[in-house]
């Protein structure tokens, strides 16, 4: 990659045939689309990466855009706005097929209205319920749509296709394997040690390498360590990049033989989850809960089950920074997809000094796992070696995963018409999420109407509305101007944890009504959303959050599911059905019995 904005500001002149010229231009601009798709990394939680480049037939770039976060303006809309009149008759280059899943085809409509005549798509959307829809819609409007590897095939096209696969590798792995994309990272000496015989490990790698680790954390939804790392290193596991996305910190410990005081138990800035075996040290679990640490119990604690749980939580990318024992277990479980190994020019020796990966049961060198697509990079005095343990999933023909919604009760099929699950905006019913990109206009305390970028913006800000403290009023304004629903949620939750005195005193009693008003506005002003909601008549709506036991359904159906209840209540109101008991009073557990 590494193309500049002006790389194609003038026509490319070549004496080869026109087809070769066109394919070279297509490949370069698709690589540019993939490059800019990655621009939001480290600032928002991992999400599908979309980039769009609009260029004239002569190769002049006239517009670009990328998706900043879930619930923000699509890349195609940004590029069209930047292109202006230059968009007429131009070609749009997309690293991935648009994922319009809200019924309004925002990205597709933007390209059509701009007068784009040709669209080059890197890869089709990996999620089955979105796959091929935008391509068909564009073609039905008379646009020429060329998909790499299908309509365009050559060596140079294959290389461009690879850049599109890599920029969305986390989403592709997640869709294919139904677990988050997992990266194992470690730093070791030249003789393969991650610590001295005493356990001392500060520092093996250079400061420049540690800065790269912070960047890797910023690209992840969560960072995982084992109990031994907590006991010996007492890490903070922060991204330290001056703001933006902060990954969840996860500790895996079967016995909960963990210190009562640790940096990870400070959740003022970053949340922590402790995953453990069911029944382990209940008194210590209570201590952690009192500190605000979330404890999740598993019947048998193992990497595969933890990854499946994090998949249900909607996570896309996980960074493992654990010791050799847990690393070996994760590799053996088949959940590690990529490895980052920082090798420092140091030798420490020691027969009992630990290595980065523990026992894998291999007895011959022929059994060794070999990395794919290996890259080498010098970082200060260190060498970074990275590569994939599993190849990036090939999206041709179709991924076997047919549904991205979470299963709360494993005995109930997600295809049952009686239950509709929703959670992330990319789910089949993603428009039901508070993070969906649908602005609402709501009156303030003075009756003046204000525009909120999403329901989540409105909800989080109203935790502080009406509080006389000037700091609370500033919180409202800051949340209102947040660039994405994710950032609004992060700000609201963080302020609530750190400054509970700024939260309105009646919040617990009014928060349902606040959410109801915002949802009613959203589903009243967008006809396609109203139609989508009414199309679910006869089905129970469940927000498939495995951890939010108030708004969501919970991990095993134990949640109150108030978001689903409110949507069902609104559905009844829109239908004018006031003669029957409100569906919101029926728990979905009762419905499926």
Automatic annotation (TrEMBL):
It is found in: Plastid, Chloroplast. One of its GO terms (cellular component) is chloroplast. One of its GO terms (biological process) is carbohydrate derivative metabolic process. It holds the Pfam family RibD_C. One of its GO terms (molecular function) is NADP binding. Pathway: Cofactor biosynthesis; riboflavin biosynthesis; 5-amino-6-(D-ribitylamino)uracil from GTP: step 3/4. It catalyses: 5-amino-6-(5-phospho-D-ribosylamino)uracil + H2O = 5,6-diaminouracil + D-ribose 5-phosphate; 5-amino-6-(5-phospho-D-ribitylamino)uracil + NADP(+) = 5-amino-6-(5-phospho-D-ribosylamino)uracil + NADPH + H(+); 2,5-diamino-6-hydroxy-4-(5-phosphoribosylamino)-pyrimidine + H2O = 2,5,6-triamino-4-hydroxypyrimidine + D-ribose 5-phosphate. Coiled coil: none annotated. Keywords: Chloroplast, Glycosidase, Hydrolase, Multifunctional enzyme, NADP, Oxidoreductase, Plastid, Transit peptide. SUPFAM superfamilies: Cytidine deaminase-like, Dihydrofolate reductase-like, YbiA-like. Residues 24-146 form the CMP/dCMP-type deaminase domain. The keyword Transit peptide applies. Its EC number is 1.1.1.193. The keyword Calcium does not apply. InterPro entries: CMP_dCMP_dom, Cytidine_deaminase-like, DHFR-like_dom_sf, Eubact_RibD, NADAR, RibD_C, RibDG_C, Riboflavin_Biosynth_HTPR. In the C-terminal section; belongs to the YbiA family. PANTHER family: 2,5-DIAMINO-6-RIBOSYLAMINO-4(3H)-PYRIMIDINONE 5'-PHOSPHATE REDUCTASE, DIHYDROFOLATE REDUCTASE FAMILY PROTEIN (AFU_ORTHOLOGUE AFUA_8G06820). This is Riboflavin biosynthesis protein PYRR, chloroplastic. It comes from Nyssa sinensis.
